[in-house]
Design a protein that fits this description.
Structural class: alpha/beta
Number of strands: 6
Order of helices and strands: HHHHHHEEEHEHEHHEHH
Largest sheet: 6 strands, mixed
Keywords: Membrane, Transmembrane, Transmembrane helix, Transport
Strand order of the largest sheet: 2-1-3-4-5-6
Number of helices: 12
Strand content: 5-15%
CATH superfamily of the largest domain: STAS domain
Membrane topology: Multi-pass membrane protein
Subcellular location: Membrane
Number of domains: 2
CATH architecture of the largest domain: 2-Layer Sandwich
CATH topology of the largest domain: Transcription Regulator spoIIAA
Protein name: Sulfate transporter 3.1
Distance between the termini: 74 Å
Radius of gyration: 34 Å
CATH class of the largest domain: Alpha Beta
Helix content: 40-55%
InterPro entries: SLC26A/SulP_dom, SLC26A/SulP_fam, STAS_dom, STAS_dom_sf
């Protein structure tokens, strides 16, 4: 009996607390692991109560800190034990061994004792699950990569339609003269704003070089398809302001197509619309292209400074006014 030897002072209490947390975490983790093998349900609260009461009672009789160790549980599981009675038998066997059989095990090699523990655990390793988790980990890394470096596409017009799609995916999609249509395929956050700004700049440079080499009409409009942009933060707002300055220096007009409601709310609250693309927001890319084509055939050549937005943009502005 050791009830009178308990010391509830530092450093013993701190050590007991730290050890108890580790033991509790191990016990619940092991319980959940084996519950999956047996298709059972484990209640974390009951596990905590059981482990706590077990150690409170054991501490009065000089026992070690008790938890649900993985190796011993693995041996029990592989031996075919079904109920808690197996631990009663195990306790009696251990007590009998410690009292009477210890000299017989004195010369037993440690490798034999290790093999007794390791052998049952090998059968519990789920290699297929490990491979699956590895693939999931790779998927998570890919998702993070897509967030930091979202895909951007140049869109073109599919023949005999008002549909605009990625020109790499649809080779028959044709470019619209004087208009560059870019699709941003991710929310715009602090993690990807620098990449998006550089990528948009590169697309504009590539399009101007292509137009120059092909001898086509000069670039006048840059349309950003915002369909896949589900959200926007303050860094994204700053990025739009910088993109606006970029297109203004080149005498271009920035146009937005199909921005979501959450994006519109943040653009409105930050006054980004008035700063960047007031009057140049459309419900669809097709409407944005039609408006740009209308302005391209007008008498004023510089869309970024002199021209007013097309009349059919009233629908989008009515939608914005209701938000």
């Amino acid at each position: 009996m050791s009830f009178g030897d308990l010391l509830f002072v530092s450093p013993y209490l701190t050590t007991a607390f730290k050890t108890g947390v580790i033991a509790l975490a191990e016990g619940i983790a092991v319980g959940r692991s084996f519950s999956m093998f047996k298709n059972d349900h484990i209640d974390g609260n009951k596990e905590m109560i059981a482990i706590g009461m077990m150690n409170v009672a054991g501490s009065c009789t000089s026992c070690y800190l008790t938890t649900g160790p993985f190796p011993r549980s693995a041996v029990n599981y592989n031996a075919g034990c079904k109920t808690a009675m197996s631990y009663v038998v195990m306790a009696i066997a251990v007590m009998f061994t410690l009292l009477f059989l210890t000299p017989l095990f004195h010369y037993t090699p440690l490798v034999v004792l290790s093999a007794i523990i390791i052998a049952p655990m090998l059968g519990l390793i789920d290699y297929e699950a490990a491979i699956h988790l590895w693939k999931v980990a790779i998927s998570v890394i890919r998702v993070l990569l897509f967030v930091a470096r979202p895909r951007t596409f140049v869109q073109g017009n599919l023949p005999n339609s008002m549909v605009y799609r990625n020109v790499e995916q649809y080779p028959n999609a044709s470019n619209v003269p004087g208009i560059l249509i870019l699709e941003i395929d991710a929310p715009i956050y602090f993690a990807n704003t620098n990449y998006l700004r550089e990528r948009i700049t590169r697309w504009i440079n590539d399009e101007e070089d292509r137009i120059k080499s092909a001898g086509e009409s000069s670039l006048q409009y840059v349309i950003l398809d915002m369909t896949a942009v589900g959200n926007l933060d303050t860094s994204g707002i700053s990025m739009f302001e910088e993109v606006k300055k970029l297109v203004d220096r080149r005498g271009l007009q920035l146009v937005l197509g199909n921005p979501g409601s959450e994006v519109m709310k943040k653009m409105k609250k930050s006054e980004l619309i008035e700063k960047t693309c007031q009057g140049w927001i459309y419900l669809t890319v097709a409407e944005a292209v039609a408006a740009c084509n209308f302005m391209l055939h007008s008498t004023k050549p510089n869309p970024g400074k002199d021209q007013e937005p097309a009349a059919w943009n009233n629908v989008c502005w009515l939608w914005l006014a209701t938000m």
